[in-house]
# Entry
Amino acid sequence: MIAIEAGGPVDAVEAEGLAVTVGADRALSPAARWAAERLGRWLDGYFDQLDFGGKPGQVAAVPGGDVLPFTTVYFAGVGDEPNGEVLRRAGGTVGRLAARLASLAVAVGDPEPFTLGLLLGQYRFDKYRSEPKPPRTERLVLVDGDDDAVAAAEHARAVAGGVRLARDLVNEPAAAKPAIEIARVATEVGEAAGLRVVVHDDDALRDGGFGGILGVAAGAHTAPRLVELWHEAPDPQGFLALVGKGVVFDSGGLSIKPAKAMEDMKTDMSGAAAVIGAMHVIGELNLPLRVVGLTPLTENMPGGGAMRPGDVLRIRNGKTIEVLNTDAEGRLILADALSLAAEHEPDLIVDVATLTGASKVALGEHIAGLFGNGDGAVEKLEAAAKRAGERVWPMPLPADYRAMIDSTVADMKNTGNRFGGAITAALLLKEFVGDTPWAHLDIAGPARASKDNGYTLTGGTGFGVRTLVALAEDMAG
# Structure
């Protein structure tokens, strides 16, 4: 674990590397100016060669030589408006460049977003590499830091820990993370964070009437699970329920996907990963709130017992769903978990799911679709996401679209028309929350990154953890 400490003035700090900020048109911060003056006039020419002007996303790594007590100085461009996202991206890039240094001093103004970006930028999933190269950074020194600055950076470290946990779960190959294994990990990290953990096994799922989870799991050789993670503060300021889709691998079932579409389907449990990661942070921060995290976990496979198009599943709350496409399975397991969440009568339910390709078509790879049933749920989640720096976009949930999922034999069917798929999927979920305020995040796009960018690396992103933690903090006051 990286150590975070307050440091004195930049000329008195001891570290291998130094990170400083540069505004638009090479406007140097005081620490950057101190370093530039000692490096000499050649630095301007070097910046010219790099075409470095201080724009957001630009980072110039300059050797300290014999004139500075630092091996390398990282001049990070932050532009005209160094907001939280700009600093997070700068931190991510610096973190990757400085990964081989044991210690780094940072003089960046607001240490929290920069620290978060740095820790996420240094994330690696090297478990299956024969020659892993983990980052060596063990010490972070905040130039001119005080107790408040250290506390802010420590908060960033806690949140980064939840995101990194979620990334690890998503990046793990599907064969190594059956539902029972994710339940074990959730139990381990949950208990470490002081959470109460309840795991529903096959018998409990049957006894509890979780027909959606059991229906999706019917074609798999591995058993399903439903995990409850409880953070129970003694004097809670509210009660929040979080639900995360946990399809550990999605073949599409009998409505099987093309081979190319299966390559990234280990990512289909990103919602569950986000909830587990967020619950770990909430427990670690010991927020004055009551929170339950629910993760229905299963594979969706085309085994001999698999559910068939035309089958009807009875969900925990008694409603029935006709299955016309077995590849629309996430809503089936979420229906069970949402029903259970509603039974607990929380103040707000939020679910997170890689639910529809339609959301990705509408909003691209970097923005999550946000739906809700009113009562301020969408506005609360949107505000939390904005504060956390994760991009969401409110989507409509028109009542007349409900007819698109009408069934001739059951209460509803699990597919709608060709168009508006993200909306009809959300409308189905709405059937299982009752009158409880509810918001739904469709993270099919941002759950996985196709390339490195700032603090986001190729693979699972851990999207949603930061938003859920920020929402819990808002509710806790």
Q: What stands out?
A: Residues 102 and 390 are 30 Å apart (CA to CA). The chain has a mean pLDDT of 97.
